[in-house]
Amino acid sequence: MSYQSRKQIILKILEEKGEAEVKELAQQLDTSEITVRRDLGTMAADGLLFRTHGGAMKLSLVNQPVSFVQKSNMNASQKEQICRLAAAEIQEGDVIFMDCGSTVFKLCDFIKHKRIKVITNSLPVVYELMNTEIEVNLVGGEVDKQRQAVHGAVALEHLHRYHADKAFVGVGGISVANGLSAVSEKEAEMTLGMSRQSKTTYLLCDASKLETTKYLQFASISLIQVLVTDETKDTILTPYREVGLRVLN
Q1: Residues 6+ apart with CB under 8 A from 152
Q2: Which pTM value belongs to this model?
Q3: What gap in Å lies between CA 25 and CA 31, rounded to an integer?
Q4: Residues 73-79: contacts with CB within 8 Å, 24+ apart?
Q5: Strands 117-120, 95-98: parallel, antiparallel or unpaired by DSSP?
Q6: What is the pLDDT of residues 142-184, one digit of tens each?
Q7: Whole-angstrom Cα distance, residue 76 to residue 163?
Q8: How far apart are CA 107 and CA 85, in angstroms?
Q9: By Cβ atoms counted within 10 A, which residue in 53, 73, 218, 224 is the most buried?
Q10: pLDDT value at 78 more than 90
């Protein structure tokens, strides 16, 4: 059976059921689970479905714009590696902040079994965690439809009422010399707010963002305490350790 034929069958199943697991789709298509995973990855990148841990879901249920779906599935293996490391840092009973970044979103797959509290401005994070054991606190304020996140003055005021053990955030770029940078003031404000209200801030950052500077430089590198990355080169990571960061890779 060709990819195009499998794609149409998968879309039909998702339209009827809303979501399906890889094993179920493989049986329906009479093909291997490896082939199904590859198909789902391709379809997710094309904005045809939402890839979940173990399967897929039709986009209308997720209520996310295609751009977010595509972004969350870019460099999926690197993001999963980063989030496994980050999840291992979270203890039972922790209160954590999670921002609206696509890498931080992937952390959901690895914490659903934990009895913790999550404070977030991300609508996709809320959707992903709402039927788990986790207690979810959604930040109030104005909804950014493109980012599927809550931003603004009211959102910041909400954050300031809470204290967390750990904050898990992402940035547009990080540089030892120039610090943290973002692609918008809204995202920078939320990163600052979550970091200042937590005991420890973890930056989840793939290798492509290291030693890069984006549109807005908003904080020194001292804002974070732990860098979680898929980068392996000591030549790149040593300067971060030398300025006092704990590096997980």
Answers
A1: 141, 142, 186
A2: 0.73
A3: 8
A4: 73/41, 73/44, 73/45, 74/45, 74/102, 75/206, 75/208, 76/41, 76/51, 76/106, 78/206, 78/207, 78/230, 79/103, 79/106, 79/206
A5: parallel
A6: 888 778 899 999 999 999 999 999 999 999 999 999 999 998 8
A7: 30
A8: 10
A9: 224
A10: no
For 59-92, give the DSSP string: HHHHT--HHHHHHHHTTHHHHHHHHHHHHTTPPT
* β-pair type (19-21, 55-57): antiparallel
Measured between alpha carbons, how far is 25 from 35 in angstroms, rounded to an integer? 10
What are 66's two structure tokens?
A: 């295609």
Q: Check: CB of residue 188 under 8 Å from CB of residue 182.
A: yes
Instruction: Tell me which DSSP letter residue 247 carries.
Output: E
The per-residue pLDDT for 87 is 97
Which residues does 104 contact at the CB level (< 8 Å), separation at least 6?
98, 122, 125, 168, 169, 170, 204
More confident residue, 206 or 45: 206
Q: What's the whole-number mean pLDDT along residues 193-221? A: 95
CA distance 14 to 9: 9
Q: What is the pLDDT of residue 66?
A: 47
Query: Exposed/middle/buried for 114, CB within 10 Å: 0-12, 13-18, 19+?
Result: middle
Question: Which pair of structure tokens corresponds to residue 196?
Answer: 């200042």
